[in-house]
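User: two proteins, same treatment. go.

Assistant:
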Amino acid sequence: MRDLADRTDVAELVTGFYRAAFADPLLGPIFTEVAKLDLERHLPIMCDFWETVLFRADRYHRNALQLHLVLHARHPLTAEHFDRWLELWNQALDDRFAGPVAEHAKVQADRIAASMLRRLAGRSGSAFETITRRPDQEPADARINP
């Protein structure tokens, strides 16, 4: 198998993924009944997104989080949804491509899914959220004697 190399490869990957996602019993209804996504219109947008993620093509200029927040308000998106999305994405990759860019696509998808899930829950998108002080611990400057 070859690695992802250009937009043609991204289009092959994205098309295969979305065809599987639309047919999936868990994700399909979200795409078809909740989002009412027009696949033919959506595919070039997602190709722009993934071409930007994988090859720094600077083609995607939308706010993916905002679009998912609107969708989440209509139909809550859960860890189960994101886990299934990742399964289908990784399967689409494994069925078509192998190499460093394909592996990078898996890593990026995992990061995107985790960040999106955290953001939809009202938390920081970062995996490194702020460390807070235990409630029973007084601030360090309060323990210093002048």
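Protein 2:
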Amino acid sequence: MVNATLHYYYDPLCGWCYGAAPLLAAAANVDGLAITLHAGAMMSGPNRQPVSAQLRQYVMTHDQRIQQLTGQPFGDGYFNGLLLDNHAVFDSTPPTLAILAAEALGVDGLTILHRLQQAHYVEGQRIAEPAVLQQLAQELGLDGAAFAAEYQRQQGEFAAHVGRSLRDMAAHGLRGFPSLLLELDGQLQRLELSPYLGKPDAFAGYLQGLLAGAANLGTDDAPLCTPDGCR
């Protein structure tokens, strides 16, 4: 039996990662395929940004294209709420900590990532705020006190996790988010998401074919994530 793991390099504030969410959801239903999340801290530290007119203009240009290509919904609470809220901050660290904490407490990483993406891109919630993250974690069935304690503990693990993610990306020529590496029996190969955006069933079939040995992408020949597919 093939040992297969899909390594997903992502950021919770990456619009293209939100566009790719249905593909990852489809991948999660492929028999015999495990999914491991690797966060990249795209908007952490010095890259965190307060919401401004400039940020709104920049992200809306991308988000409208993502919506057109993938069919993923962007809500009024996001476009005309969060993106007009000058007191909000885009910071990847808190939602990433929430994902790491939830995983440590037994919640599937994709489940909480997709809930955070919906909260951000559809509902316009401030997912950089711990109180919001606490509420979302409790929605998923986590005990509030246990989540708060694990969230605190993960702050000490955050830099090491991100460092591993970025080293892996550099080692395998991954240029941005979202990016994928498929590990088959210990061998890694890059996969390209962009041709499958908006086509989750086709992506699942592609993965099933790879696992069944119907296709064979060599590591050196596998295409990179294109600039249009990363942000």
